Amino acid sequence: MSRYSACPVFVLLILLFSSCAQQVAPTGGKPDTRPPLARKYSPDSATTHFHSKTVEIQFDEYIQLKDVSTQLVISPPMEKMPSVRVKNKTLTIEFKEPLKDSTTYTMNFGTAIQDLHENNPNVNFRYIFSTGSFVDSLCLWGQVTNALTLVPEKGVMVMLYNKLSDSVPYKQLPSYFARTDERGYYRITNIRAATYQVFALKDANFNYKYNEGEAIGFRASSLVLTHNDTANFVLFRESEQKQKLRRVSQIGHGRILLVFNKPVEDLLLKPLNFSWGEGSRVFVEKNAGGDSITYWFNSPKTDSLILEISDKGKVLDTVRYKLISYDKMLSQRKGQKASLSVRVNASKGTLDLNSPITFEFDNPVLSLGRIPDGKLLITEDTSHKNLSSKGSFHYLEKDKSLRFFSWADTAHVLKENQKYKLYILPGAFKDMFGFYNDTIRINFRTRELKFYGTLKLNLHAPEGHYVLQLLDETDAIVRESKIGGGKELYFEYLYPGKYRMRLIYDVNSNGKWDSGIYLQHLQPEHVIYNPQPVTIRSNWDQEVDWFIK
What we know:
Blueprint: H1 7-20, E1 38-42, E2 54-59, E3 63-65, H2 68-71, E4 73-75, E5 83-87, E6 90-94, E7 104-108, E8 113-115, E9 126-130, E10 138-146, E11 157-161, H3 168-171, E12 176-179, E13 185-191, E14 194-201, E15 216-218, E16 223-225, E17 229-230, E18 233-235, E19 245-252, E20 255-260, E21 267-271, E22 282-286, E23 292-297, E24 304-311, E25 314-322, H4 326-331, E26 342-344, E27 350-351, E28 357-361, E29 376-380, E30 392-395, E31 404-408, E32 419-424, E33 440-446, E34 453-460, E35 466-471, E36 477-483, E37 487-494, E38 497-505, E39 527-529, E40 534-536, E41 541-547
């Protein structure tokens, strides 16, 4: 056979192996970003006199459903969600309950409908129908923001009720509703002309009703909707009206934590199974918000505690606890020496000018003001002269547990940009359980004065009561002042960086921001922010005028 006669066999083999090779989609070209489009409705969208039990919508390509349970929004809501399923290019909706008479329904699928291969969503695809003789066409839109931070609120329901009693958000399903987007905007369409109660609600349990603890926003009056309109809301959580004990836990020997739903005002903790004897010590420590209480006590000669808890003369609860004994507390240390731990802010290596040195103990201490001579020293790096005697020791007033105190440089013996040493020698402090501190040595340096900047604020505001807060870039409160109308304010020793100013209209003059109460038709106190952040630079005085209308 000639070499040419073998060619047909060779070609056949090539074709055979090629047909067995894996099929690969061609590479290159623009990616598919087009969403699936609806081609046919049965019944048609926006149809009237709708009485069908099922709807079929055909798309121009194969589709899939993603997160339909959270993405699908039906207005007005239904008690039983319809069944929604996909087969190839067809979406089928099957209703599980009778539809209301003379009502326009809007079904918004959000991003649930996507093509099969590229996951391109048909964003906010809607199917609309009316069981009456016409499709309602009015529209309401607006924005929902947080009442204190003014940040837009995502995923909040804005709800319209055609019943006007105060109880409707608690008991009724809304007539219409929509959810806010990432920027806090909502849009409710196909609304009937009528008078409505309108609410914004952070519906945590998705039951379309206002439940305790959920955030709400409301209009001061009902909305008469005769044309397309707007309504904005500020969202807040109501101030708790009834005191409740939420949680009790024993967190150590002689220490119980009590958590309440609101700040306590006149707390009484009464043991029922014993009496405190001679030498017993009891301390009550509140957190900054006043709703979390640590109860410190010398362990009684009993292995259990029955404690009656009251606030403002009303008994809230009675708790029973098997106590952690002194011996068990020692055994839990796993061989470590029992001692009193102390944390000092200067241990970070730098102390801010015009700031005290603060001390935080694990347990309440009993020896402040009776520190033995030479047990606590603050010295210059090059000298052994004790400077601590030039300052003054204070318990922090916001705390009643005797765990926090400070040394203030009242004689101004600490100079800028200087090195210092702090010594706390053994036995300087004794706590309520009889433990003493070990040796602590800390080296620190004071900052340079030119590191800081100063802000002078000229506030031009009507007479009234305000709280002015200076916020850092994390929105933490750096400084706070309670003021009247127009006033000059100075903020010294500020770190370099950007700051915002928040002004609270303190209506009840209690020096803090207060939330609203829906049933009392009480809106949260109004808050405004300065239009532009303030930049503070080192060794620089910044002056700002802020005009409040």
